[in-house]
Write a structure and sequence with these properties.
- The protein is of the alpha+beta class.
- The protein has a domain at 37-130: Immunoglobulins (Immunoglobulin-like), CATH 2.60.40.
- Helices cover 29% and strands 26% of the residues.
- It is built from three helices and eight strands, in the order H-E-E-E-E-E-E-E-E-H-H.
- It has helices spanning 5-33, 189-195, 201-231, and strands at 40-47, 50-57, 64-73, 76-87, 93-98, 106-114, 119-124, 129-130.
- Strands 3, 4, 6, 7 and 8 form a five-stranded antiparallel sheet that branches. The chain has a three-stranded antiparallel sheet with strand order 1-2-5, with no helix packed on it.
- A hairpin with a 4-residue loop joins strand 6 (106-114) and strand 7.
- The protein is rod-shaped and about 230 Å long.
- It starts with a helix and ends with a helix.
Length: 232
């Protein structure tokens, strides 16, 4: 039995629709498995008191990718923290960079996936990674050491010992600044005693004075008598 021309045309048309549907399905599936920058994410975290930067790849196609991390400073790279290769999966694969990051620091994370000459991905994870405002290790305030105790002062060599009583002043000592009425002994008392001088010196001087007066009176009377004789 021969197939009519109309039936053949319908068969060709159906085959074309099926082929187009299969091609579209393959394209969608291929796009779903293709590596994309949106499948990479970065995070700053802490491991104990040490800082780390982690990058996770959820690329289901398993395309190897080179991940590079840079510290930013005023919009440009300050230095390269490091680079690692990651092969992602639908469950996600995470790589870790040891980095003692500072609070509110900014890092640029670059992904290069596929052939280096014709990469599938050659982009930065956007936006750039900003670290938390608190560091992993908190500075604990330290108490300043107490100042050393001052050594006790040593007693002076010239100072008398505390248990030695100070000598008391004699009762007869006149107060400072008071003039004593008692006659001070003559410097030459010892010499006068050796030459025979004693307390009769005043009496002798009195007798000598009386003799001088008597002698003067006798001379005066003699002169009057002599004058009377001469006038007579």
């Amino acid at each position: 039995m021969s197939i009519s021309r109309r039936t053949a045309a319908r068969s060709v048309r159906a085959l074309g629709v099926a082929s187009a549907a299969a091609a579209l399905a393959l394209t969608v599936a291929g796009n779903a498995l293709a590596c994309d920058i949106s499948e990479f994410s970065a995070k700053a975290a802490c491991e104990g008191d040490k800082g780390v930067i982690t990058v996770t790849d959820v690329d289901a196609s398993g395309t190897p990718a080179l991940v590079s991390v840079f510290l930013e400073n005023k919009g440009s790279d300050d230095h390269k923290v490091g680079e690692q290769t990651v092969t992602g999966s639908s469950q996600g694969v995470t790589i870790t960079f040891a980095e003692d990051w500072k609070p509110n620091a900014i890092y640029r994370v670059h992904v290069l996936a596929g052939d280096t000459k014709h990469p599938i991905v050659d982009k930065d994870i956007t936006p750039n990674l900003t670290t938390p405002p608190t560091a992993c290790k908190k500075d604990t305030p330290t108490t300043p050491p107490a100042p050393p105790a001052s050594p006790a002062p040593k007693p002076s060599a010239s100072a008398p010992a505390e248990d030695t009583p100070s000598p008391s002043a004699p009762a007869s000592t006149a107060p400072a600044g008071t003039v004593s009425n008692a006659p001070s002994p003559a410097v030459g008392d010892s010499n006068l005693a050796e030459t025979g001088a004693n307390s009769n010196t005043g009496l002798i001087a009195g007798i000598a004075g009386a003799l001088v007066v008597v002698g003067g009176g006798a001379v005066f009377l003699g002169m009057r008598r002599r004058g009377a004789k001469d006038n007579g």
